[in-house]
DMT family transporter (Streptacidiphilus cavernicola), 319 residues
Amino acid sequence: MTTEPAVRTDTPASAPSSPARRQALLASAAAGVTVVLWASAFVGIRSAGHALAPGPLALARLLVGSLVLGTMVAIRREPLPARRDWPGIVACGVLWFGLYNVALNAAERMVDAGTASMLVGVAPVLLVLIAGVVLREGFPRPLMLGLPLSFAGLVVIGLSSSGGGGGSVGWGVLLCFVAALAYSCSVVIQKPLLARVSPLQITFLACTVGAVTCLPFAPALVREAGHAHASPLAWAVYLGALPTAVAFTTWAYALARTSAGRLGVTTYLVPPISVLLGWLVLGEVPGWVALVGGVLCLAGVAVSRLRLERWTRQSAAGR
């Protein structure tokens, strides 16, 4: 008779943790979907970029993404955000969906998919750097240790011969850095919006803003699409439907349920998946020098993240 009360007291104690555990698992699953789809996007951009210029490809991708997301928003009858949230949404649309896509599309005409993914992988370091300036969080010593490593990797890749001549690769590195910078700024802007606006609504509106930003490329898109084969057009539709509509929504879902820093760590998986997909789909593998540079980039991000977490815990304990 002594075992029965023990069972009864155990069951309610474990029950409250179930919703939190379920939320954590859903956030992890959403992050995993995002990582795989974003990794495949580097391959899709590289393939479609042979027939569609950077601007037209970005516009095609965003139009498809906006159409898919708009359908989802209409089905769910999502309410419009408050007036105070619109400036941030517009900024995300211009930076993350507009500038990021055009810059990355242009970069992948000069560097292969795996190299581009490694270069954009420095975004988490830039994210901490931007937070230090914009949010006045300062510049902790861990950041100062990781930052030189990441930028040394950028220089190594810029000096490599992967994807063509050194000059063109240099421009490709610069454009990947612009894309990473746009991505980092957008995460800082997006995070507070998620407390008031649903991930799906933010993604739809930002994607639509990005499409409007890219409308000047519409004549070129019509012209190039008329001469393109089915494969580049299929890649453009894929990029809009999955890496844009689905992946940005799952990213926003995960970001609303975890910290930007922890979620940023999952992006470490994008470069190796992109390299693998680039080899399987396109037969491309970054040169050894570019791989070394990519490892340096990601090592700098890891050092910043790991040391920054320890530094934050020690600082908090000392208060």
